[in-house]
Amino acid sequence: MIVILTHRQMDFDALASMVAAQKIFPDSLMVVDGKSNPYVQDFIALARDRLPFSRPKDVDWAKVEKIVLVDTHNLQRAAGIKEGVFEQIPLVIYDHHPYDGFLTEEMHIESIGSCTTLLIEELRKMAVQLSPFEATLLALGIYDDTGSLLFESTTVRDVKAVAYLLEQGANLGVVAEYLRKPLIEEQKELLQQLLDNGKTEDFRGQPVYISWAESDDYVGGLALIAHRVGEMEGAETLFLVVQMENRVYLVGRSRGRGIEVNRITQAFGGAGHTRAASATVKHASVAEILKQLKGELAQQAHRINRVRDIMSYPVKTVSPEMKLSEVEQILLKYGHTGVPVAQGEKLVGIISRRDVDKAIKHGLAHAPVKGFMTKDVVVVEADSSWEDVQRTMVQHDIGRVPVLEEGKLAGIVSRSDILRIIHGSAVPTEMSLTRHRSLAMREDILGLLEELPEQIRSLLAAAQQVADELGYSVFVVGGFVRDILLKVPTQDLDFVIEGDGHAFARALAQRLQDVQVVFHDQFGTARLDFADGSHLDVASSRREDYSSPGALPQVEESRLRDDMFRRDFTINAMAIAVNSVRYGELVDYYGGLRDLKQGEIRFLHNLSFIEDPTRILRALRFAGRYGFRLAKETREGLYTALDAGVLQKLSIERFTEEFMHMLSELKFGVMGESLLDMGVFPKWFGAELPWDFTHPGLNQAISPERKWLICLRRMDRSQFERIEEKLRLARELKGIAYKFFDIMDGLLSLGVGEKGSEASPYAREKISLKSLDQYLEGLPALLMEVLLWDERFRDSLEAYTEAVKAIHQTVDGTALRQWGVKEGPEIGRILKAVRLAWLEGKLQTEEEEKEFVLGLLKDGLSNRPKGETTCST
What we know:
This protein has 873 residues and is α/β, with parallel strands linked by helices. It is built from 37 helices and 30 strands. A hairpin with a 4-residue loop joins strand 20 and strand 21 (525-530).
């Protein structure tokens, strides 16, 4: 026999969980005891025929083989269970309340909004069908425990469970009827007592509303009454102490910014969530519980948030002499509505975006900030409370307030910072962006990390050990994160350290051994070079600014968020935590994961291409590599940058470097077409050149040299010389290109590929194999392959290639010397004649070749072969 139990004072979530559990365990009994929530009692009274409950006294407990416990993980809280009686019976638990112990296979405990949700997920896996009545009851359980899906504890899983129940026929009208019932007279009397007796007290800066009431009879619905008190008093944290019959009931509620109420109720043997918890104490007085409650609050209440805890730092400032046009770029880049003006460490004013825009509109872009800044600046001290800042912002209608400490600028606090305190996770904080976006993916990322090659995994393990030992937060960033999420092979390892990057690099090198460390003091970075030629980069978290478009960045120390902001695109601005306690967590401040899923390349700010024009080429390279598209604002930003002439401010070396990266890519043809379509090449080379990026070979795994020649094959020498002026080509690429144009020029001089009459695509002039051979003999296979792809030369070259295949020349200079030919040009002339005879098909065998050579020696080469063989184009 299997029995299903839940806690005393059963609510709708508990009732619904029992019904769902019975669907999973069809032959089980639902056992209840004691009083339930009055609304639950009403529901059961109307639906008694459909809810076959048993009482503990009616159960033969000796035959019980398993207990299924729902909506609590404490068997002692179950209705009708006496301590120690059933400890030997196997127990299956479904619960959503916090649990810090060890989880066994039979314990299904997860922190979500409703216990019913857990069981619905099991029912969906089992494909169990629900009746409309069952679906409505289960929906009632979820809505009751999640505040109609409005409580902070509500998760996506709860919402999906409700959607599934609606598909199964749940009636939300019935749900609303039971959740919106008015208070009964006894509840109203209890509510009035709680309002009359309540007051707010301060515990280490935390305001807590505490009230008490007494009733000779049990009054259900205390959770609903606590909700009403919270609404009416507007309390961040409240505790109600209510004595009914011989028990004292303690109920705690918090809006998320206050105290974790379950930590308080645990001292009374209770349980619950951080936002809602309760406890029941037998044979105690209200006065005793109130005294103990206040003692627990005094011990466990944490210090309220001060400005220093929520402010942003270091602060981006401008000097009084800076031009308004420069300030405009800073405000645009960082998305600020204003920026402090500082002379050294002293705050002297603040300039708003509105004032900057007005001044520039009047033609004052080159005027200094000092003439337009507000000198009477509203500030707060670092030890002020967040409520003080909130009042200051409301009073002065300002959105950013500088923070001072000992008269010096220490940080800045914004409306967003205050909203995060007030609304919690509704306004994401830096921590929530780190955790909430990544925790759901952490297991997946850990799995991807486990699939990496042993060498990379060992390297990450070593970095983790060093990070933990030094106490630094360490992240692997950029391309590694992007590629591992895309599940493509990656070897690109870059570390960012929230700490001393050089110290980390030295410690890591010592642990790895046989590693050379190169420090770059200018950029605050280090590189570890390995014996196999690979390397990894290490940097302290930093921010980069550019003095002019195309210039190298100026680096300053900053936090990880700013370090990510300096990168080119959102998909490259993600990090994975390396430290052991957070290993595998994704840091994604700017939506890189979203853009990976949507297949978009998105820059991080509007000045991205202006600051670094090479990002234009990188945007097209990443788009081509992954088959992505440019986001709308990024595409518009690219056109704006090109129109502003930023490419002309870029050095030839940097442009060439980015282009060479493209040339090594598999989808080079796609990238090349984008360079033309977006207008990058016409802007850079100053002309519309006949590039060929449409050939299928450009998107295949062939060598960069082949791709280079293919895209040039429609040009002439003068057009290539224009390209050479704007690219710093490697000697090999330059040499093979000129060789290619030499051959093309030679073939065209022979008339190969010349257009003929309208009746035929090309002239059918006879081009001798001898003439072709003077240009094509010994030609590298690469050049011949590309020339064969050119329809102008294909016919002639195919005929020539077939003729060359038939050459089986065996005679060489050694043989001729043995036959008495003296060393000198005569040997070369004979060998050339033999090759031509083979090429023209006059020789077929080694014997014929020997007779031919002997004839040449006899005639002294006086008689040349007549009737040269030709090929047609």
